[in-house]
From TrEMBL:
One of its GO terms (molecular function) is DNA binding. GO terms for cellular component: nucleus. It comes from the Eukaryota. Residues 54-130, 133-190 bind DNA. It comes from Steccherinum ochraceum. Residues 54-130, 133-190 form the HMG box domain. It is found in: Nucleus. Residues 337-351 have a biased composition (Polar residues). Residues 327-351 are annotated as: Disordered. This is HMG box domain-containing protein. PROSITE patterns: HMG_BOX_2 (PS50118). The keyword Cell inner membrane does not apply. The keyword DNA-binding applies. Keywords: DNA-binding, Nucleus.
Length: 351
């Protein structure tokens, strides 16, 4: 199963033999190494840089968790005692906090030794290794940094909360563009590829796929061509079906279904306008919220009507988007099944 990232809030699923994608994220299986030329290079014309990725050493706590998980008996008993794997990991955090300094010393010493070696490698063989790409700062950090460069040091969070979606869009678009480049650089760093090697491909992510048996029997050139064709066709189709970013929570759904008052949602519209009107003041945002709540309670129904109308309009647009979503998912399932059937037919013919 391959998940393809499309426009924001849009996620479609396409069936595709996982050989190419598995190679990018899990390394090349031994039986697919052909004359030193990897499957990724053959499929997408990627070029190795000869530079090795150098990861930072594990911190002491991570070493402690690794040791606990490396013992199968202790791991199974810990999961059984705590109920779930996540609760077992949480219990390890509590266990680590109860350790004395002497008990932590072994993990701390091992970390310091590895960190010293890590720094020595970077200093003496810097051309052989390269550091992991840094994740770009989000939209809010970009805004606060811009304000700081203009000499604004107070009230930045209140101004950001009061900004409209259109005003925030330049910062969010800049973040999304940098994130696309970051994902590509991260894949290249992980597999020692030259920078820009995968710029002509799509940024891929995988979530749960089976390793194919007899993978060497498949026609690689067919997979590469079909894969790119699938990406292009699905992007064109779903560009017209941008889905809603978030569903309505249970209680608001109950309100809408029974025609109850939507004062909470309407108040958010009022609060947005109120915060914008007070953006120039230096009053903390939590105090502004309390003041706005008091003003809202004293407003008449006529004064609240514009905000409730705005909320009702958004709700109608959301329901229309849900209908488009349902139709888009059904169509995507049909296309995925058709593509999978075509690949299966070609595979049977090649055999």
């Amino acid at each position: 199963m391959l998940l393809l990232p499309l426009p924001r809030s849009t996620l479609i699923v396409s069936r595709w033999p996982p050989t190419c994608t598995r190679t990018i994220f899990c390394g090349l299986p031994v039986h697919r190494q052909q004359g030193g030329k990897t499957l990724v290079e053959e499929a997408f014309q990627l070029k190795a840089s000869g530079v090795l990725p150098l990861k930072k050493p594990m911190v002491p706590f991570s070493r402690f968790v690794r040791d606990r998980l490396s013992d199968p008996t202790a791991r199974e008993s810990g999961i059984a005692n705590n109920g779930t794997y996540n609760k077992f990991i949480s219990s390890l955090s509590s266990e680590w906090a109860r350790l004395t300094d002497a008990q932590r010393q072994a993990y701390t010493d091992a970390y310091r030794v590895d960190m010293a070696e890590y720094r020595q490698r970077l200093a003496s063989e810097g051309d052989k290794y390269k550091a992991k790409p840094r994740r770009p700062s989000n939209a809010l950090h970009r805004y606060t940094k811009e304000q700081a460069s203009l000499g604004v040091t107070r009230g930045r969070m209140a101004k950001w909360k009061a900004m409209s979606a259109e005003e925030k869009k330049p910062y969010e678009d800049s973040f999304e563009a940098d994130m696309k480049a970051y994902r590509k650089r991260l894949i290249e760093w992980k597999h020692g590829l030259q920078e820009g090697s995968i710029d002509h491909t799509k940024a891929l992510t995988t979530r749960g796929h089976d390793v194919m048996e007899n993978a060497s029997n498949y026609n690689l050139s067919l997979y590469a061509a079909r894969f790119k064709q699938t990406l292009d066709s699905q992007e064109q189709f779903f560009a017209k079906n941008v889905l809603p970013s978030r569903p309505i929570r249970p209680y608001p759904r109950f309100q809408h279904a029974h025609g109850l008052s939507s004062s909470a949602a309407s108040f958010k519209w009022f609060l947005h306008d109120f915060m914008r009107s007070k953006a120039e003041s230096r009053t903390p945002s939590h105090r502004l919220t309390l003041t706005a709540s008091e003003v809202w309670r004293n407003m008449t129904e006529e004064q609240k009507a514009p905000y409730r109308e705005a909320y009702s309009k958004d709700l109608a647009e959301y329901r229309e988007a849900q209908v488009r979503k349902s139709a888009a998912v059904d169509e995507n399932a049909r296309l995925a099944e058709q593509s999978s059937q075509e690949v299966s037919d070609v595979t049977m013919t090649s055999h």
